[in-house]
């Protein structure tokens, strides 16, 4: 492929990697119709007329959403819950009432009220600590734009003349689905994140995606030619022919490497000296199950449930939860489905409950603390999980445990839920394993007492590292201090594994560390035989495991435990990796 632009000034921008891949082609600047609240900041004469306009706009937008779902049924099947949550929000009486009150109280137009109310909701999500819930702000923007376009009678142009790399300020789920898939080579946005629905959908369609910090959507020209490197996070505008030739070779090499990894991923993860490692997948949505199966996951090691509550803007009913969990259990029939109970509260506020403002949400009213303080919500949640266990493959995982009392209270509620369901004639398998997330130093110190009360442990390496080192990894000033190879973190992990082995209960790790290729020898050396990670990391991790000897991993960790400086440990691990995996960077 030759460069088509006559420009010779090559410009390289660094970007945040969202969905890996490599795209080469012309740029397409995507601009949707924008609306500013100042345009509508004037008094109206007839509030009732504006309310009618609002009702008609909502009805028309709901109709458009349903048409979108019907026309894209096959492509949207795995994302149906997203668009249904949009429908539920539009049909929510509370939201309608809030917008109508804004019309009446402020004597402003329907468009003004829509912007004002949904802007507040957007800001609520943007102010949360958790990346996933910050990304929900863009879903609110999507709904706002849909309503405003309907009110104004305008449509967004999604036509792309030739296959191109799309540049946009942000991409809503609606945007990604309305583009002609055959015309999209890659996505570049000014804002967004790894947990945004645009990222999830781009990943499912295998479209490279990066986020830049330079507002390129305002600067890019359709005459520009672009290399989008989703592996390294580079955007190269108007590359020189030499650069273009180099990336053509890189793309061919990546495609060959990935093809080999994918083919081998169905093979079991067994070390060269015969130790089998169980590889599971961390997922949030049913659309991730096909990929988990394709890469050879042996089950679901972490199914996050709080997204069900946040996306619906209200507490879902027991039946709604049951249907979701039941689908996961049946799609993974014969393999474990580990359902983590609601990790809500703190910075993950269920909109219907609103919650409380907290200066330190990670140390606040969240997870099991929230659940035990909301027994009606927790009981309904547990009933839904237990009911869904008709195949006997569901496991319950409780987050943020720091005491035996929390475990005992949870077990009591589980037993009460079972008794109620049996009394109601519900059919399910009552034997359901109970596990604990080991995420705090307190849980590690209490691990012997906790192990005697449950069936398995699962270390959440992200939070265990954060709480052990007192480092907020979202704080750029101290983020470099966040390191899961810190000797204190590794010693806590080893102690937890030893306790699990002593009490003969299951032991896994499900944080980001589990999917980090360079950490795999350390984890195996610590004694982990079950790792759970995002599906995309499984092929690489499996290949690494098959090239390792467990005895060498034990020796590595024994040496690590003699060290007391992070840099020394990092150097030792890097040397171990370099000797055995010269091609690791190509995985």
Essential attributes:
eight-stranded mixed β-sheet; alpha/beta; Glucose Oxidase, domain 1; 3 domains; disordered N terminus; Enzyme I, Chain A, domain 2; 587 residues; TIM Barrel; 24 helices; 47% helix; eight-stranded parallel β-sheet; globular; 16 strands
Explain what you see.
The chain has 587 residues and is of the alpha/beta class. The chain has 3 domains: 11-32 and 157-240, Phosphohistidine domain (Glucose Oxidase, domain 1, 3-Layer(bba) Sandwich); 37-152, Orthogonal Bundle (Enzyme I, Chain A, domain 2), CATH 1.10.274.10; 264-586, TIM Barrel (Alpha-Beta Barrel). The chain has 24 helices and 16 strands. The protein has helices spanning 47-71, 73-76, 80-90, 93-106, 110-126, 131-152, 173-178, 197-204, 216-219, 241-264, 289-294, 306-311, 318-331, 367-373, 375-387, 404-423, 441-445, 447-451, 461-469, 487-502, 520-526, 538-546, 550-560, 566-580; strands at residues 11-14, 16-19, 22-29, 164-168, 184-189, 209-211, 225-229, 234-237, 278-283, 300-304, 337-340, 394-398, 433-438, 456-459, 506-509, 530-533. Helix 8 (197-204) links the parallel strand 5 (184-189) and strand 6. The protein is globular, with a radius of gyration of 25 Å.
């Amino acid at each position: 492929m030759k460069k088509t632009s006559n420009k010779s000034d090559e410009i390289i921008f660094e970007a945040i990697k969202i969905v890996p891949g490599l795209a080469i082609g012309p740029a397409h600047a995507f601009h949707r119709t924008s609306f500013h609240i100042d345009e509508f900041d004037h008094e109206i004469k007839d509030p009732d007329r504006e309310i009618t306009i609002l009702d008609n706009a909502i009805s028309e937008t709901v109709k458009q959403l349903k048409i979108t779902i019907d026309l894209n049924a096959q492509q949207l099947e795995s994302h149906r819950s997203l668009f249904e949550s949009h429908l539920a929000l539009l049909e929510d009486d509370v939201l309608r009432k809030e917008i109508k009150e804004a019309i009446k109280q402020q004597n402003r137009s329907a468009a003004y009220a829509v912007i004002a109310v949904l802007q507040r909701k957007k800001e609520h999500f943007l102010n949360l600590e958790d990346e996933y819930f910050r990304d929900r702000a863009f879903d609110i923007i999507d709904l706002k734009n849909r309503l405003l376009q309907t009110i104004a009678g305008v449509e967004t142009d999604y036509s792309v003349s030739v296959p191109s790399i799309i540049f946009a300020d942000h991409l809503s789920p609606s945007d990604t689905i309305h583009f002609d898939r055959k015309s999209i080579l890659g996505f570049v946005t000014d804002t967004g994140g790894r947990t945004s629905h645009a990222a999830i959908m781009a990943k499912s369609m295998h479209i490279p995606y990066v986020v830049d910090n330079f507002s390129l959507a305002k600067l890019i020209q359709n005459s520009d030619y672009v290399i989008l490197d989703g592996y390294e996070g580079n955007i190269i505008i108007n590359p020189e022919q030499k650069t273009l030739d180099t990336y053509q070779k890189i793309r061919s090499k990546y495609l060959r490497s990935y093809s080999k990894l994918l083919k081998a991923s169905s093979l079991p993860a067994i070390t060269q000296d015969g130790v089998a490692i169980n590889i599971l997948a961390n997922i949030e949505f049913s659309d991730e199950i096909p990929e988990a199966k394709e890469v050879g996951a042996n089950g679901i090691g972490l199914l996050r449930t709080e997204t069900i509550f946040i996306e619906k803007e209200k507490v879902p009913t027991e039946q709604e939860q049951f249907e979701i969990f039941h689908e996961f259990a049946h799609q993974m029939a014969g393999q474990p489905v580990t359902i983590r109970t609601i990790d809500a509260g703190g910075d993950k506020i269920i909109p219907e409950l609103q919650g409380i403002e907290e200066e330190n949400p990670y140390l606040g009213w969240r997870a099991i603390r929230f659940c035990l303080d909301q027994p009606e919500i927790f009981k309904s949640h547990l009933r839904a999980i237990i009911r869904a266990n008709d195949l006997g493959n569901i496991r319950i995982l409780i987050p943020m445990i720091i005491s035996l009392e929390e475990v005992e209270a949870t077990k009591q509620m589980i037993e009460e839920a079972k008794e109620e369901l049996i009394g109601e004639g519900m059919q399910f398998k009552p034997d359901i394993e109970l596990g604990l997330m080991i995420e705090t130093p307190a849980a590690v110190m209490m691990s012997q007492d906790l192990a005697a009360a449950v069936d398995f442990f699962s270390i959440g390496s992200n939070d265990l590292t954060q709480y052990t080192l007192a480092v907020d990894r979202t704080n750029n000033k101290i983020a470099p201090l966040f390191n899961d190879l810190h000797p204190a973190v590794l010693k806590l992990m080893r102690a937890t594994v030893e306790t699990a082995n002593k009490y003969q209960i299951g032991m896994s790790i499900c944080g980001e560390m589990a999917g980090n290729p360079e950490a795999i020898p350390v984890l195996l050396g610590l004694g982990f035989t079950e790792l759970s990670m995002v599906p995309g990391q499984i092929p690489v991790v499996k290949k690494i495991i098959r090239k390792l000897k467990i005895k060498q991993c034990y020796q590595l960790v024994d040496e690590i435990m003699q060290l007391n400086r992070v840099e020394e440990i990092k150097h030792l691990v890097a040397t171990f990796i370099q000797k055995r995996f010269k091609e690791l960077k190509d995985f």
